[in-house]
Amino acid sequence: LERTFIAIKPDGVQRGLIAEIIARFERKGYKLVAIKLVHPTKDFAEKHYDDLKARPFFNGLTDFLSSGPVVAMVWEGQGVIKYGRKMIGATAPLASEPGTIRGDFAIAVGRNIIHGSDGPETAKDEIALWFKPEELLTYKKETDKWLYE
Ligand code: GTP
Ligand code: MG
């Protein structure tokens, strides 16, 4: 089954949105297969956002991601990469639809509270960057049969 990397950024943690964000993925029916609280180093944040290193906001972005604890997670389920991004909303929160996480809880593009992998390759790379293979769990839930035909 498809898996994606989701992170609650330092602003989401500071603002007390951990439970709210986890609840949304849970209630959708997605399955949490890995989770930990981490304070990334600047170097690690640069690795995570490696594809953006030429952008003018790269230094601010990586300073921010490494500024405090982050909730790193892997969520599993049909369509979770693309649909997870839909639940997160557009990059700039004021362009995000109401009902999305960024639309409901954020204002500034540089304080948009959550990250989600943008495709299957990125998901694979980000999961491997943030987690050891043994930290990813495979398990059955009783609700699986009520979620999938
Ligand atoms: P992530 O899930 O965090 O990767 O966001 P995204 O995929 O919606 O956007 P992208 O990967 O293009 O950018 C990564 C992060 O850089 C965004 O979440 C923003 O916090 C930040 N960012 C992107 N574009 C801008 C910008 O134009 N200005 C500033 N200040 N920050 C930006
Ligand atoms: Mg991105």
UniProtKB/TrEMBL annotation:
Domain Nucleoside diphosphate kinase-like: 1-138
Leading EC class: transferase
Keywords linked to the UniProt accession: ATP-binding, Kinase, Magnesium, Metal-binding, Nucleotide metabolism, Nucleotide-binding, Transferase
Family, per entry: Belongs to the NDK family.
Reaction equation(s) it catalyzes: a 2'-deoxyribonucleoside 5'-diphosphate + ATP = a 2'-deoxyribonucleoside 5'-triphosphate + ADP; a ribonucleoside 5'-diphosphate + ATP = a ribonucleoside 5'-triphosphate + ADP
Catalytic residues identified in the record: 115
GO biological process: nucleotide metabolic process
Organism domain of life: Eukaryota
Subcellular location: Plastid, Chloroplast thylakoid lumen
Subunit structure as annotated in this protein's UniProt entry: Homohexamer.
One Gene Ontology term of the molecular function aspect: metal ion binding
Full protein name: Nucleoside diphosphate kinase
Keyword Nucleotide-binding: yes
Any one GO cellular component localisation term in the record: chloroplast thylakoid lumen
Cofactor requirement: Mg(2+)
EC number(s) from the headed UniProt entry: 2.7.4.6
